[in-house]
Design brief:
Elements: H1 2-6, H2 10-24, E1 28-35, E2 40-46, H3 52-67, H4 69-82, E3 93-97, E4 101-107, E5 114-121, H5 126-140
Antiparallel strand pairs: 1-2, 1-5, 3-4, 4-5
Helix pairs in contact: 2-5, 3-4
């Protein structure tokens, strides 16, 4: 998986993904891509200015949501019970509603350690949000 990141077009693909998410997701105010293997926010676009420390925390929060200690323990228990030896993770999409915003986190299909993040106004049609983000993520298959 790491070799894919080294290919010359990876950063262009990431920036294209972020731009497509930002323009295609309904009521979108921000989009980004997090690499959970490095804990870095690879790219983002937003309509507002945010302090750099908040953006840095986004990557850590994404890692906690998908691969926090307790989440990994739950996955390990289910894998053991089901006799699975797969490296794939169970949590693929997570929707978080805050007071004013809806946040959708989606693992990339090919690279399980890369997560697309979309932030929309709370008034967003959640079904349309999922449909559009899934379409874009499938198109970019990082």
């Amino acid at each position: 998986m790491a070799t894919k990141r080294m290919t010359p077009g990876f950063s262009d693909q990431v920036m294209g993904l972020v731009k497509s998410l930002r323009t295609d997701a309904p009521d979108c105010v921000a989009s980004g891509v997090v690499d959970m293997s490095t804990g870095m926010l690879l790219s983002y676009e937003t309509v507002d200015n945010h302090p750099p420390e908040v953006l840095d925390l986004l990557a850590g929060a994404t890692l906690d949501l998908f691969q926090g200690r307790t989440v990994v323990m739950i996955e390990d228990v289910f894998k053991e019970r089901r006799g699975s030896s797969s490296d794939n993770h169970f949590f693929q999409e997570i929707l978080v509603n805050s007071e004013n915003l809806t946040h959708l986190f989606v693992r990339m299909n090919e690279q399980q350690d890369v997560v697309a993040v979309v932030v929309c106004r709370k008034s967003v049609n959640v079904g349309m949000l999922f449909a559009q983000v899934r379409r874009v993520v499938k198109e970019y298959a990082l």
